[in-house]
Design brief:
- With 151 residues, the chain is mainly alpha-helical.
- The chain has a single domain, classed as Orthogonal Bundle (Arc Repressor Mutant, subunit A), CATH 1.10.10.10.
- 68% of the residues lie in helices and 7% in strands.
- It has a three-stranded antiparallel beta sheet with strand order 1-3-2.
- Strand 2 and strand 3 form a beta hairpin.
- The chain is elongated and about 95 Å long.
Length: 151
């Protein structure tokens, strides 16, 4: 927020300096003095102000991206918990009713879980899509595990 406030402040200062520069009587000054005055008084604050405003916008987009990524990770985790409670199989409607989120979001996260090979899509005889989680279905057998090198 400070970047935005300071950026707007510098842009305002630049605008006032431009107004003052346009009304100033610089006929007695050389072109180099006029250029330096214009550069330091108008262009420099404008450039820094634009940089600060753009930096604020970049920071905001990055924050939104982090929030979205964090939300996605949380939704994946919640769906996996629902699948675990349902013996490793869920439908979109079960997830929607449990989490109270939009179908498009649920579909996106379930599709993402399929792309990560954590879920597989199955279909019932009536055409209902079911998302199956083979690793979750194998959890009851985890007590029979042994070392990879054990015979």
């Amino acid at each position: 927020m400070n970047k935005l406030v300071f950026g707007i402040g510098l842009l305002s200062l630049s605008a006032f300096m431009l107004l003052g520069f346009s009304k100033a009587d610089l006929n007695n000054q050389s072109g180099m003095v006029k250029g330096a005055t214009f550069g330091v008084g108008v262009v420099l604050p404008m450039a820094i102000g634009i940089g600060l405003v753009q930096g604020h916008r970049r920071d905001r987009k990055l924050l939104i991206s982090r929030i979205s990524n964090s939300r996605l990770i949380t939704l994946r985790s919640e769906i996996l918990k629902i699948a675990q409670a349902s013996q490793g199989k869920v439908t979109e409607i079960e997830v929607i009713s449990e989490l109270g989120i939009e179908q498009a979001v649920v579909n996106e996260v379930l599709t993402d879980l399929c792309h990560q090979d954590l879920a597989e899509i199955e279909m019932t005889d009536s055409g209902l899509l079911v998302y199956s989680f083979p690793d979750i279905q194998q959890l009851p057998h985890k007590h029979t595990s042994r070392g990879l090198l054990d015979a």
